[in-house]
Amino acid sequence: MADETHPTPSDLQSEIEAAWSEYVARFRAEEDFIAAQAQQVVMATTLDRFVRLIDYVYNWSRRSSIWPLTFGLACCAIEMISTAAGRFDISRFGAELFRPSPRQADLMIVSGTVTKKMVPIIVRLWNQMPEPKYCMAMGACATGGGPFKEGYNVVSGIDEFLPVDIYVPGCPPTPQALLHGLVTLQRKIDAQSVRDARWFRRGPAEEVAVPVLGADLIDVRRWAPAGGATGELVATPAGLTASDGEPPADRMSAATDLLARPAAASSRSDSSDTDRPVSPGDESSLDGGVG
């Protein structure tokens, strides 16, 4: 004998059939009910489907027409050039149109050793590229310094200054590796949506502060003037946002002024002329002060 508090499977089946029959009957008899149900489904899914359709077409057009910047630094650039030749044929992926102007390119391939002298130029070219734009670090040097990492004039990776999207390892990478990096970038583009794209946000786009090259390379995002009369620089956390309400432009000008100042004379009594830093245009001081 079944417990009265727990319905049997046959009872559940009859309730389900009755509810379904009532639902079907309302669909057949009530046009307003049908219209209301259809409107709820359409409103819940139409916008998402429309956005997905836009994403598909928009991303397909961008991934199939990537225009790299005609830009090379060292031996990795030779491999990049050979990738565009007939043997590997980068045009299969729609990326054969290397543009001579950064304002017409959307992919920067940093191929080669990144020296401190070249970083300001690279950052300036990056800022001149319109959105959407991507950066690819090609080779061990652009990724982390490579065999020249301990060099006094080499930067340990371009990602210290630019947002890198794809890393292509190797020293130098083969053309096949560069094509694999390009395919990986295409997959990343396919996964993007117009809803969270940074180039569709309100307000002006933030540019990367161009480093200042002087006695050494100064990243103005990491340094700010201390506010003293001497113009001393103090370290601040990295980031584009200025500290203490000071815009990055002021920090850049302060760093430029500091590097342009002549070196102060040493206050040590036993200092000789060879200890004094040589200022520009004063190379003749290298010949004296030895004996």
Plain-language structure description:
With 291 residues, the protein is mainly alpha-helical. Among the domains are: 125 residues, 3-Layer(aba) Sandwich (Rossmann fold), CATH 3.40.50; 49 residues, no CATH class. 37% of the residues lie in helices and 8% in strands. The strands form 3 sheets. Strands 1-2-3 form a 3-stranded parallel sheet. Strands 4-5 form a two-stranded antiparallel sheet. Strand 4 and strand 5 form a beta hairpin.
Estimated share of beta-strand residues: 5-15%
What best-fitting shape do the alpha-carbon axes yield?
A: elongated
Structural class: mainly alpha
Which bin fits the share of residues in helices? 25-40%
Poorly predicted segments: 226-248, 262-291
Helices and strands, with pairings:
Layout: H1 9-29, H2 31-63, H3 76-83, E1 107-111, H4 119-128, E2 134-138, H5 139-144, E3 166-168, H6 175-190, E4 212-213, E5 217-218, E6 223-225, E7 233-235, H7 248-260
Helix pairs in contact: 2-6, 3-6
What structural keywords apply?
8% strand; 7 helices; 37% helix; 7 strands; two-stranded antiparallel sheet; mainly alpha
